[in-house]
Give the backbone structure.
Amino acid sequence: MKYCWCRIRWEKLYLLGGSPFCEIWLKSFPLEKSKLSTMIKLIINYKNQLFLFSPKVMKLLITCPFWLGSLLAQELKRLKLVPFDTFSRGCWVETDLKGMYQINLWSRLANKVYIQLVSGEARTFDQLFDLIKKSDYPQRTNNTNITLKVNIQSSQLSSQRTVQSVAHKALLESIARIGKQQENTDELMLFLEKNQCWLYLNSSWKALYQRGYRTQAGSAPLKENLAAAMVLLSGWKFKSPLVDYFAGAGTILMEALLIAKNIAPGSHRQFAFQHFENKNLPLRENLLQEAKNQTFSGQYQLTGYDIDPKMTQIAIQNAKNRNLEKEITFETWDFLQKKIDFSSSTRILSNPPYGKRITSSELQKLYQKLNKSFSDQVFGWYITNLAIEPENTQQRSSKQLFNWDEKCKFRYKKLS
């Protein structure tokens, strides 16, 4: 008789209705293939009594900086996901545990990835309490250490403090039998708009633009995901030399190299989902290994300049933090004093000063030289919030972006 060896381990399966979790162990045993098939069918029939975390489709809200929603949607499509209801600061996706892991690991543009736990009408506090209590929170984690942010617009329940208190109490009651305080804090967001309620759980922990390599920065750093957006919007071809006249902490060139080498931006950081009850650490390790195997090893020419020698050293150290210091050159260089002499294939991508630490006369000279450097042969892009327009606007285009809370324009010379 032929046998099929099988080990099935179900951990912490919740019974529907909020009952305490149980653990079901089926040890290794010899089983005929026909009986194994029957057993699998029996397990599937238990779907009305048992809830399995990993196969469940989740609705995710992925946020990003202002006016990058469409670019984020394109990125998610490259991950073989189907975004919908895209707006200026993000979009939604329906996917499984693997998809959620992939977005956190691979997204260069997202701020955070939120899991929708529940949605429904909440006109009264009793409705709100019942809605939050029956959310999927116990099926994700049993952590009693939570922080809850509330946003209310045009709803009968208008007291933010009371809504927060009621929702917090409902969350704790939903895990009363299984809850325990963990060292990490789970971040949740509750939206109330026109008497409709949505509750979200942050799966990312810190914002995804915190890649882990930038341990030091200047006084006005550029967010990593905005730097990545600038690289993607520029259409930079990896074989072309890339120069940043105002490199600062090296963020733009670091993000450009991560894109060129196809390095997953989240491969050197931790996530909130690693503490969830339904975590699948082997799946995460497999995705990390797959990401490592997909890294490219081409030759790239990236050069960054800055007038401050301290910032040059910071940029070099940040590159070392990802073992990329040999592939980017950083030098101390005064843009206003040095002659610009690059080949026709060179591309310029910069985040020049906005006027906080430089006089208006110097700024005028700086931007005149910067715009002039975009000659007929050299193409370039830069982000600024200053109203200093290039002389030949016919060859320039611009896109509105936000650098932190500053509204800016991303200006660039057209490639055709």
About this structure: The radius of gyration is 26 Å. The chain has a mean pLDDT of 85.
